Amino acid sequence: MRSSAATESTSDVALGEEAREVRRFWGRLGLPGLVDVHTHFMPERVLHKVWDYFDAHGPLIGGLEWPITYRKMEAERAELLREFGVQAFTAMLYPHKPGMAQWLNGWAADFARRTPDCLHTATFYPEPDVETYVREAVEAGARVFKAHVQVGAYDPADELLQQTWGMLAEARIPVVMHCGSGPAPGKHTGPEPIARVLARHPKLRLIVAHMGMPEYEEFFDLAERYDQVRLDTTMAFTDFIEEFMPFPRRALPRLAALGDRILLGSDFPNIPYPYVHQLHALERMGLGQEWLKAVCHDNAANLFGL
Ligand SMILES: [Zn+2]
Q1: 284 CB burial (10 A radius; 0-12, 13-18, 19+)
Q2: How far is the CA of 91 from the centre of ligand 1 (A)?
């Protein structure tokens, strides 16, 4: 039995033990490793600002106590994911204002070049040149996009984004989007704004971050309606989240039925508990080995052709 995930030591020795624990988890399932669609890599300066924000218990994180477990240098963080046996991961990065996305995309393209196990990630913001730089990112090989409606504080159905959604739907490139109202709501969070996008772009490969928490069931409605909508598990079902945004037990059969559209995401490195806790949190949902295998590896491997 684990005692308290949140208080586990993260000294180098403990990390070695954790890597072994993570590897035992996927080894038991007979998987070749994990695919994690929701990990954060971004320019160090930006990441440190994000960490400062978490340290200051800012309103976007609901004013919560949120100690970052993996506050390490970039190379160490990537190496740690490899030690865990994460075969492919992403570089979720996102702008909070205009004029920033293109610069982030340049950084992310370079990061993907020097990090072959990272799926080349890009982002965007509703602004006049968005279509141009998103097209450039697609041509440069971007395989997944990240959009953050809460931090960006924009309406995803903004007219400025319509061509971009159309292009990404056509190119069948997934977009991981933080569109749920957790940990704190924003003006354009919740299922309604993104439902308007899906009504116009029903084939969009939307990956709803964090299982859409706390609107789990409303986002399940969208996934059941649109066959290209998926959800990532990021932070869902963990002790930390269950305390204030619990997953409703009555929705378990729907979680089981959507098993081919749920993708492992972790939010590494910005998590207030060890990585392995996310895996154990998935396992204790009790949906069985086949569900776990699909979620932790096969669904993403299929989606990205790994
Ligand atoms: Zn995240």
Answers
A1: exposed
A2: 10
